[in-house]
């Protein structure tokens, strides 16, 4: 396939290596829904291999008009949404479960994953290529420097696997950092004994002041409470796994109710 340079990159580095594209295309977890939405197909390097899989019902969403024209010319059978993925109401497109796949634009990759969380009941699996450091952050266990807000929020609902590293040379233009491909598979029975909105608020508040103990960072939510006497609140956010954050959320929720 000839790679044509679009006028606008929009934060995206276009994949030019067919072997890597083929490998990504077959990385959706077993049992994934047939409906697949590719984000940012660009010149269709990944798209061509997705279309070769007869079990896949593919749609793509692309914001760059020049890329859309190219895709229409080279893949006339393809259903293309010329829109900004971040502005889409995904329930208007899908009333049933679907997967997300793509070489995600670096400048919006975190926003893509936050949007996945907003529609998690519809999205059982995701395969995405992102900056290596972002992939490491999402898959990171507690105790690591890279462990953060998205690590906790995504791991509460998805099993995350770091699949493989991708070298800078397989992109046009080449980025200054390495990339990696990760997969997300929604947990069959995620623990739901907590207020999810409060969970997000607690996680974000704790990590936004990650050098502080929980006792100090959470005072913006609960100014004072006897619970702060517990040794639990001497911890810092990177020391807590998902279950501990759920426990923390429930403690904060109880305090907000005056208990």
What is the CATH domain class of the largest domain? Alpha Beta
CA-based shape? elongated
Order of helices and strands: EHEHEHEHEHEHHEEEHHH
Strand proportion, as a percent range, falls in 15-25%
Biggest β-sheet: count, sense, barrel? 7 strands, mixed
Strand order of the largest sheet: 4-3-2-5-6-9-7
Distance between the termini: 64 Å
Q: What would you call the structural class?
A: alpha/beta
Radius of gyration: 20 Å
Output mean pLDDT: 93
The percent range for helix content is 25-40%
CATH topology of the largest domain: Rossmann fold
> Based on the structure given, which CATH architecture of the largest domain is correct?
3-Layer(aba) Sandwich
- The DSSP helix count reads 10
Total domain count? 2
Q: What's the CATH H-level homologous superfamily of the largest domain? A: Vaccinia Virus protein VP39
Number of strands: 9
Brief digest:
The protein has 259 residues and is α/β, with parallel strands linked by helices. Helices cover 32% and strands 18% of the residues. The protein is elongated and about 65 Å long.
